[in-house]
Amino acid sequence: MVLTFVAVMLALLFVLPPLKKNAFYLVYFGVMTALAYVIEMHGVHYHLFSKEVLLTFLACHFVMINLVTFLAYGVDKKAAKTQQRRVPEMQLHLLEFLGGSPGAFVAQKVFHHKTKKKSFQISFVFVLAIQVVIVYYVLKILNVI
Predict the structure, then answer these.
(1) Exposed e or buried b for every residue in 116-137, given b needs 16+ CB within 10 A?
(2) Do 29 and 102 touch, CB atoms closer than 8 A?
(3) pLDDT digits (tens, 9 = 90+) for 106-115
(4) Which of 57, 93, 103, 109 fits a disulfide with 70 by CB distance 3.0 to 4.6 angstroms?
(5) How far is CA 136 from CA 27, 51, 126, 139, in A?
(6) HSE toward the beta carbon, residue 126, CA cutoff 13 A
(7) 20 half-sphere exposure, CB direction, 13 A CA radius
(8) For helices 101-111 and 51-81, what crossing angle results, to 10°?
(9) CA–CA distance, 22 with 35 (Å, rounded to integer)
(10) 68 with 95: CB under 8 angstroms?
(11) Which stretches within the chain are classed as H helix?
(12) What is the pLDDT of residues 66-85, one digit of tens each?
């Protein structure tokens, strides 16, 4: 599982080049690699790619990517207030696309950040739409709907 996760995450770095400069993604990558290792070591009574292991890993991914996305918005808001170097919008959108949309939505409300910029909100809604379509087709493939 750890090798599979690392391979997928490294592949994302090549497919989406802006991730290479995204410190938040790199933190997520490190934490999730460690979690994948822990899940793999403590899930020895399960088959490595069993439903339980996969669901545990997906739950960890969902929590971590949303925490990291929320943190990225908070750091960007602080940087905006103090005239420091900002987090590029593309990096925020990439975190959203990887599953951090709920964290982004909450961060926008909590920090009152990026809520009035129309171009950013249009991109945010576009990312949400893509995610809805992906989830729909995955659920359809799995015969859940």
Answers:
(1) eeeebeebbeebbeeeeeeeee
(2) no
(3) 999 999 999 9
(4) 103
(5) 29, 19, 15, 5
(6) 9
(7) 6
(8) 30
(9) 20
(10) yes
(11) 2-15, 23-42, 51-81, 89-95, 101-111, 118-141
(12) 999 999 999 999 999 999 99
Measured CA to CA, the distance from residue 120 to residue 1 in angstroms comes to 35
Q: Is the dihedral of CA 92, 85, 77, 75 positive or negative?
A: positive
Tokens of 48: 């490595």
User: Tens digit of pLDDT for each residue in 27-58?
Assistant: 888 888 888 888 777 765 556 566 677 777 78
Residue from 86, 105, 77 nearest 21 by CA: 86
Q: For the chain, which residues make up each domain, given as ranges? A: 2-115
Specify the length of the chain in residues: 145
Give me the amino acid identity at 140: K
Residues whose CB is less than 8 angstroms from the CB of residue 94 and which lie 6 or more positions away in sequence, other chains included: 16, 18, 19, 22, 25
CA-based R_g, the chain, Å: 16
Lookup: tokens for 32 = 């999730």
Q: Does residue 23 contact residue 40 with C-beta atoms inside 8 Å?
A: no
